[in-house]
Give the backbone structure.
Amino acid sequence: MKKILVILGPTSTGKTDLALQLAHKFQGELISVDSRQVYKYLDIGAGKLPGKEVKAKKSEGFWELDGVRIWMYDVVNPKIQYTVADYVKDANKVILEIRKKGKLPILVGGTGLYIKALVDGLPNLSIPIDKKIRKGLEKLSLIDLQKKLKQISTKRWEIMNDSDRQNPRRLIRAIEMENYKGNKGDFGSQELVKEPDILKIGLTATREILYQRSDERVVSRINQGMIEEAEKLWKDGLSLKRMKQLGLEYGILADYLEGKITSKEELIKILQGKIHGYIRRQLTWFKKETKVNWFDITRKNTFFEVENLVGIWYYSQDATQD
C-alpha cells in the first residue's frame, strides 16, 4: 500500500475523532503531527485525548485509543529539545512499520510546519544545532536577537512572520542557520519518501465557531487537571523556563505557577485569548497548503462526505495494481 491519509486543520475541529473513525473503517493507524504531543507527560495540556470519550491505553512506543494505535506520542522527555528534523526522521520509521503490516498510515494534527516537513520536505532541516552559538544567543533579549538576525540577513528577517519575530527560539534557529558555513547549498530536506498517492482532508469552521469550541476545551482541560499536570511537571524537575519554551498552554501555565497570573479565572481568560491567536495563525498557515479537500465541521453530512471521498480514494488501489 502506497497511500497516506492526512487529516489537518486548526485546533478544536475534531481531527482525532474523525481520524479514529476512519482508522476503524479503513484499517489504519494514526501518527500524531503535533509539536507538543511528542513529549512525555504532556497529556492534558497537549490534548492527547480526543474530544469524545475513548478508552486510552499507553504502550511502549504508542498509545491505543479505542483499540487504534496512535504513534508519535511520548517520544522524548520534555527537558530535551526535539526538532522538526528529529520528528521527520522518527515519523518516517513509523510509517514504514505501519506499511509492513499492510495498514493505512493516517497523519493527524494541526502543526502545519511538521505536516509540511514530513509530506513535502523543508530545506535546511539537516543543518545541525550549534550548542556553542546557542549558549550565547540564549542570554540575549528578544530585541537583541531581532537586531542580530537583521544584521546577519535582512532577507531572512523579512520572510519571517510576526509570530516568528516574537519567538526567541525561532530567532535563535534562524541565526544559527545563517551562521552555518555553506548553508546556501542543498542539505537535504529529509522529506517523506515521495508518494504517488497522498489524500489531504482539512477540517475547518468560521473563526467564531472555532473560538467557541476552543474556549470550551480550555475549561474542560482545566477540569481534567491541566493545572495539576503542570505542577507535577515542575515538581519533577521541568523548569519554568523550559515550560515556557514548550509554548502555548504550558507557557501560560508556567506564568501561573510563577505567580504572574493570580487566579484560575484569569488563567482561563488568558489561555482562551492565546489559543484564539494560535487558531488565527493556523488558519493563515493552512491557506498555503495545496491539494486539500476542505470540509466544514458544522455541516450535518460532513463525516459521511469525508468517508465517501476517502473510500473512493482508498479502494482505487485495486485499479493502480492491475
